[in-house]
Write a structure and sequence with these properties.
Elements lengths: L3 H28 L2 H26 L9 H22 L7 H12 L7 H8 L5 H26 L6 H9 L2 H14 L6 H7 L2 H20 L5 H24 L5 H11 L6 H8 L4 H15 L6 H5 L1
Length: 311
Amino acid sequence: MLSFQTVLDIVAQFGFFYGLILLGFLVARLSGKGKVFNKYLTALLVNLLIPILFIHTLLTASPDSTLDVPLIVALSLLVDLLGPVLMYIRLLRSNIDDSTRGVYYMCVTFNNALFIPLPLVLMFIGSTGLPIVIVFSLTQMILLATLGSLIGAVYGNKTSERLRIVKDALMFPPFLAAIIALILFATRAQLTGDLAIVLSFAGPMTTYLALVSVGIGVGVRFSLVDIRAALEVVGIRQILVPLITIPVILLSGLSHVPTAIIILEALMPPAVLTVVYAASFELDTQKAATIVTVGTLFLLPIVPAIPFLLG
């Protein structure tokens, strides 16, 4: 039975969560400069705060926190790859054009593994849950650089820049930071003292700014164009994939925290990076943006159940 104080704390946390998203949405809609704000905010998160957070988390973590990495990677692959398999079955007899087909595959494969899960895990579990988020994100970035580029090359109009796209994905700052941190972690390097305290600021700052960024993104991309098609993709990504994978995750033998976080990742909407990839390969960017927005809005009413999932 939850105490009254616990209920108040949860309500306050959700007020904070939705309040920051609403703030970002209002900034985008009222200022008319949402794209500019989001450009700089995303650059700050991707190039500085998230890399610092990854390095701080892994270099202050217990060595025991990575014991389940192979199983976590396997479950991450299941969550990512089941979507395109289901979409392939759905599109077998469809006559849609290649540009749309490529967007559907992109959006159903790559979900939001960072900007929404990170603040939720930090708010309701703390830094102990971040290694699982990092491993999931690393797995997805490798898939994005390989499978994502293959999808873009097959269905897009621009194939001459495949190597550059792969390079950009592999040079993604959080990806590089996680690789460097994992190498240092494997050598038993530890982050202690004043430096650890200074770098710990990345946690709360990432939480606040990531949620504002989500709100700005919704404000910038909000559109009801192609909403029916978007709901079909979101239905596979955020309903069918979790329904099929959650029993497997629960039976995997992982402890509670990694199990809960992988389930949380399975519920996430398509990633904003799918819009960037769609533009890079000259796929249907408008459809990609609509799917990402609809998926994010679809998730928001489900968020109040997440504390019970995370325990």
